[in-house]
Amino acid sequence: MRELRLFDSHIVLAPPFEELRKYISEEKVFVITDRNLSRLYGHLLSSFNVLEIDAGENRKNLKTVYRLYIKLLKKGCDRSSFLLGFGGGVVLDITGFVGSTFLRGLPFGFAPTTLLAQADAAIGGKNGVNLLGYKNLIGTITQPRFVFIDPSFLKSLPEREIRSGLAEILKHAILGDAHLFSLLEREERGRLVEPPLLERLIFDAVKVKVGIVERDERERGERRKLNFGHTFGHAIEKLLAIPHGEAVSVGMAIEAKLSVRKGLLGREDLQRILDVLKRFDLPTRVEKGVDWMDPIRKDKKREGSVIHAVLLEGIGKARVERIELSEIERMIDDLC
Question: Could you tell me the residue range of the domain that residue 301 belongs to?
Answer without folding.
Answer: 159-335
